[in-house]
Amino acid sequence: MTTSTTNPMITTGCIVYVRKGCPAYKIAKGNTFIVLVVEPMGAEYGHRVKVRFKVRTGQRAGEEITFYARHLNRLSDPFTRLSRDDPTKNIEVEFLTSPVTQENPNV
Q1: Which of 17, 35, 86, 88 is most buried, by CB atoms within 10 Å?
Q2: Whole-model pTM above 0.90?
Q3: Does residue 4 lie within any of the structural domains?
Q4: In DSSP terms, which residues pair with 51 in a beta bridge?
């Protein structure tokens, strides 16, 4: 019998860790982001998903940035690749913690 483990999906309020940065966007490995918005864009955009983050650490700390995932299902992969205007310039993020709650706002 095989046991399957499901990866947590990246959703609004989650904290993600950057596994692979991109110098063009001034994002380094080890930065952390808070997910502000996850917005599926629909079939007319190839089912891409817009993900807006607030940068917690690094050179761009405090800024809000937007990246795109290929499909909503990719947000539950162990590592998620996100890009902006150029698909050759991308970052790779990993789920770090569950959504920030009122009981624990300092995560």
Answers
A1: 35
A2: no
A3: no
A4: 38, 67
The pLDDT value recorded for residue 102 is 45
> Element (H or E) spanning 32, and its range?
strand 32-40
What residues have CB less than 8 Å from 68, skipping those under 6 apart?
41, 48, 49, 50, 51, 82, 83, 84
Which pLDDT score, from 0 to 100, does residue 94 have? 93
- pLDDT for position 3: 46
Q: Please check whether residue 56 lies inside any domain of the structure.
A: yes
Three-state SS sequence of 41-107: CCHHHCCCEEEEEEECCCCCCCCEEEEEECCHHHHHCCEEEEECCCCCCEEEEEEEECCCCCCCCCC
Tell me if 107 is assigned to some domain. Answer: no
φ/ψ of residue 75, rounded to 5: -75, -10
Domain extent for 39: 15-97
Give me the number of domains the chain comprises: 1
Q: Which segments of the chain have a pLDDT < 70?
A: 1-5, 100-107
Under 8 Å between Cβ of 22 and 90: yes
